[in-house]
Specification:
Blueprint: H1 2-41, E1 66-68, E2 77-80, E3 83-85, E4 93-99, E5 111-117, E6 120-125, E7 135-140, E8 144-150, E9 158-164, E10 176-182, E11 185-191, E12 196-203, E13 209-214, E14 217-220, E15 224-227, E16 230-236, E17 242-250, H2 254-265, H3 270-285, E18 288-292, H4 295-310, E19 312-314, H5 322-326, E20 333-335, E21 350-351, H6 352-355, H7 359-366, H8 368-385, E22 391-392, H9 408-417, H10 425-437, H11 442-445, H12 448-451, H13 463-483, H14 487-493, E23 504-505, E24 510-511, H15 543-550, H16 552-562, H17 586-597, H18 619-630, E25 632-635, E26 641-644, E27 651-655, E28 659-665, E29 673-679, E30 682-683, E31 688-690, H19 691-694, E32 699-706, E33 715-720, E34 723-729, E35 734-740, E36 746-752, E37 758-761, E38 764-765, E39 769-772, E40 777-783, E41 786-791
Parallel strand pairs: 28-32
Antiparallel strand pairs: 1-2, 2-3, 3-4, 4-9, 5-6, 6-7, 7-8, 8-17, 9-16, 10-11, 10-15, 11-12, 12-17, 13-14, 13-16, 18-27, 19-20, 21-22, 23-24, 25-26, 26-31, 27-28, 29-30, 29-32, 33-36, 34-35, 35-41, 36-40, 37-38, 37-41, 39-40
Helix pairs in contact: 1-3, 4-18, 7-8, 9-10, 9-13, 10-13, 13-14, 15-16
Length: 831
């Protein structure tokens, strides 16, 4: 029996290894195909616009940083003040040149000059340090960091030293080893009680000497050492001017690290590796082709897009989640927040709160095949942990298990509606429902599901910010269930999307914590990294609900006051800038985006915040600045909505599932306001367009720009929580739009200079509407799926919008046909 079990286990191990290998080959193969396609169609070098040396100066005043990663690769080569770190995730191995002496490098910045692009970084060291003005060029492959040294001012010998020690107070490595195998090979490990990391280090030429060091003690001729704050070196003859070093990393074994080296850089051809990296980056950066914009705008967009992709980590090797992801045919791919946050032993490689508002949405639109792998990784993480996590470390199943919430439902819903195929959405929906609803998990234990809010005296920290975002979480789950035909889950959660109103203090016009007995708690308590003023609009699933609470003028005024020039945007505030469109002031939204938000990135630092030493290469703001520059913002109201706002580009093409062309006529710094919108050459009276429409066929959005605040016509859609699939008007007698409520019904707010005579849907009268002449707004409730016609008198009879409703991924039936609105389930209107 033991032999049978052992044989079975062996077969399972072999199958898992084969699956992981095939998944890795698939990713690399897809990337190579993408590179070839881009090379054939786009000779533009987008890497020239990426600003790689980030950090010095305003706003964050941190040290100069360069961060390099192969797109969708693992290793992150990180140049910082303390040295050139072979991998940002483990951050315990630094390489540096040392001339005529061996030193154990301290934390001083040896760098004099730095120039960099995504494929190569060139550093000249200061002449007064041990490097003596030597230089290094850096590049990477998916799993190998590459250093090409040129030694200067050598009298006795030149050396390359490898230091093993935690670089920053994040990952502790007390149990390190270094072994000089021969005069071209070093094997090193970083270790602690939880894990061992393997480094296979290969030199392109034989050394003339070797040694190790520990603290201040140097042992020339030694071939091994152990401990912390130690390392080793190889010495070269003074006539040797150039040495190339490859550092291959593995989380699983030294043999795997060596295999990565053999696969990716065994020829030691630095120029070829750099060119491959450049081609790979152009393939990704070329997904948004800016055809006309000023130099600074191009630099901001491509630096932002680079930062988003550079924070996507392939954590397949050595991850306990690898076999789970391989079951779906995917590697372990996850989006981190920044190099500073992505480290083993306390960091995280996913932060749904940072990236769940713009980064996931951007990638769903421009890179659906990548998003499929990311969604599979979410599912794989659930399969192992039994709960979906907002923060996550793919190397540590025990870490972050209390972070059991996030915008999961909305993320999967948007992917479903925008045609990301190959994902088991039913399984994902069930996993999210269990994460939120299980009595043993966080959301239930916080009392949010039973009381409709998180009691301030119930023992849950940051209950207000979490409770507000839980409303967005459960609404996304409910609507995902709706499109998948799960009426039970939909009915269970759709009303809870309105729970945020339980914390609305109407007398003080703020969201406020409540105690268990329903009494108000102290003002301005329970908010994570913010205040009641900053969290005032953190309900992106219901912008029209916010306008009802505040009133249009008050909401516009408060946002205008909150988002001042120089504002430090936390993750929950990035979409606030688009909300004035819903409160009937689109020019305010355009002014904030163009004249306040975008200019904050003129330094080309993709910053986290304005405080000294805050992160750069920060994913959240990077994704938002990319979207701001092209003039499209995602809104989870209801699922795949995109909001059109003022772009900084004149012409750009998004190459996603289909091509989306943004063209802004007469655009300039002074012309920041939109006075007309056309879609595919026809007048488009709406600031909203569904992602379902954008992926159904190639789309051209043409904007007329002007220098003064303007409106796009006498009648247009200025707010909706249904998907706007199409819209048209004659700007006099009618406005019509095709509506997909996702839920049973939806609402719309129409700007109209005169009162309508009738409102109908699919030819049937709709009576649930009001018109306010003082604000020129028409509010319509209870709108089912179909063509909405608003008539203003006259004899014109418009042809109905007949844009076909896109079908659900993998099916032949329209998404809207999942349920009949006349079914036994009673429609629930969100007001």
């Amino acid at each position: 029996m033991k032999n049978i079990l052992g044989s079975t286990k062996l077969r399972l191990v072999v199958l898992v290894v084969i699956s992981l290998f095939l998944a890795f080959i698939l990713v690399i193969g897809n990337q190579r195909q993408e590179i070839r396609q881009r090379a054939a169609t786009s000779p533009i070098d987008y890497t020239q616009y990426v600003h790689m040396v980030q950090g010095p100066g305003a706003p964050n005043n941190s040290d100069r940083q360069v961060f390099m990663r192969y797109p969708l690769g693992r290793v992150g080569l990180w140049s910082r003040d303390r040295g050139e770190i072979a991998d940002s995730v483990t951050r315990g191995v630094r390489l540096y040149p040392s001339v005529d002496q061996i030193v154990n490098k301290d934390t001083a910045d040896w760098r004099n000059t730095i120039t960099a692009n995504p494929s190569q970084t060139d550093i000249t060291y200061r002449s007064e340090v041990a490097a003596k003005g030597s230089t290094v060029s850096l590049t990477v492959t998916p799993n190998v960091s590459i250093y090409r040294y040129h030694f200067n001012s050598v009298s006795s010998y030149a050396a390359v030293a490898i230091k093993l020690q935690e670089t920053y107070s994040s990952s502790s490595w007390p149990n390190n080893t270094i072994t000089i195998v021969d005069n071209q090979t070093i094997q090193a490990t970083l270790g602690n009680s939880n894990r061992t990391i393997y480094y296979y280090i290969k030199f392109n030429m034989p050394a003339a000497g070797r040694g190790t060091f520990s603290g201040s003690a140097v042992t020339d001729g030694s071939s091994s050492g152990t401990g912390d704050n130690m390392g080793g070196y190889l010495k070269f003859h003074p006539s040797t001017t150039d040495v190339t070093v490859a550092v291959a990393l593995s989380h699983s074994s030294m043999a795997q690290a060596q295999q990565f080296f053999n696969n990716e850089f065994s020829d030691f051809n630095f120029a070829t590796a750099s060119q491959r990296l450049k081609d790979a980056w152009n393939a990704k950066l070329g997904k948004i082709a800016v055809q006309k914009a000023d130099q600074l705008t191009k630099q901001m967009l491509y630096t932002g897009l680079y930062s988003v992709y550079a924070n996507i980590i392939n954590a397949t090797d050595g991850s306990p989640y690898a076999s789970y992801a391989a079951a779906y045919g995917s590697p372990v791919l996850t989006i981190g927040s920044s190099p500073g946050w992505e480290y083993v032993g306390g960091g995280f490689f996913r932060c749904e709160f940072d990236n769940g508002r713009t980064a996931n949405e951007l990638l769903t639109l421009i890179d659906p095949s990548l998003m499929k792998d990311i969604l599979h990784t979410y599912q794989a993480q659930y399969d192992l942990n039994g709960v979906m996590l907002g923060n996550w470390d793919p190397y540590c199943p025990r870490c972050w298990n209390d972070q059991q919430w996030g915008f999961f439902g909305g993320m999967f819903l948007r992917a479903y509606l925008e045609g990301v195929t190959g994902v088991d959405y039913h399984k994902a929906k069930n996993s999210i429902a269990n994460t939120f609803g299980s009595t043993t998990n966080f959301m239930y234990k916080s009392q949010y599901l039973t009381k409709g809010y998180i009691p301030a005296d119930g023992g849950t920290s940051n209950g207000m910010s979490r409770g507000l975002e839980f409303s967005t979480d459960v609404q996304g789950l409910a609507l995902l269930a709706k499109v998948l035909g799960d009426s039970s889950t939909y009915n269970q959660y759709i009303g809870r999307g309105q729970n945020y109103k339980n914390n609305w203090d109407a007398a003080n016009m703020v969201f406020r914590a409540k105690n268990s007995d329903g009494s108000w708690a102290a003002m301005n308590t329970g908010f994570f990294e913010g205040t009641d003023k900053r969290y005032a609009f953190d309900l992106m699933h219901d912008p029209l609900g916010l306008t009802n609470l505040y009133g249009d003028r008050t909401m516009t005024s408060q946002i205008n006051t909150l988002l001042t020039p120089g504002k430090d945007y936390n993750d929950y505030e990035n979409l606030d800038q688009i909300l004035p469109i819903y409160s009937n002031s689109p020019s305010t939204a355009q002014d904030i985006t163009r004249n306040r938000y975008v200019p904050q990135f003129n330094s080309l630092n993709m910053w986290e915040g304005w405080w000294t030493g805050s992160d750069v290469y920060y994913t959240d703001n990077s994704a938002t600045i990319v979207l701001a520059i092209v003039g499209l913002f995602p809104m989870p109201a209801p699922g795949a909505q995109w909001v059109i706002t003022s772009p900084s580009v004149t012409t750009a093409v998004i190459h996603g599932r289909k091509d989306i062309t943004i063209h802004a006529n007469n655009n300039s710094t002074g012309n920041a306001y939109i006075f007309s919108i056309q879609v595919n050459g026809a007048t488009y009276p709406s600031y909203f367009i569904s992602g379902k429409s954008l992926v159904a066929g190639n789309t051209t959005i043409t904007l007329g720009m002007t220098s003064t605040p303007s409106r796009i016509g006498n009648m247009y859609v200025t707010g909706t929580d249904g998907e706007a699939l199409a819209a048209s008007t004659d700007n006099n007698t009618y406005l019509q739009f095709q509506n997909d409520p996702i839920s049973f019904t939806s609402r719309a707010k129409i700007y109209a200079t005169k009162q309508p005579t009738t409102v109908s849907v699919n030819g049937s009268p709709l009576t649930n509407w009001t018109y306010d002449s003082s604000t020129s707004t028409l509010n319509i409730k209870g709108i089912p799926a179909g063509n909405v016609l608003v008539s203003f008198g006259g004899t014109a009879t418009p042809a109905p919008n007949n844009t076909p409703v896109p079908t659900a991924p993998g099916s032949g039936s329209p998404v809207l046909a999942t349920w009949d609105i006349r079914s036994e389930y009673k429609p629930i209107e969100i007001d």
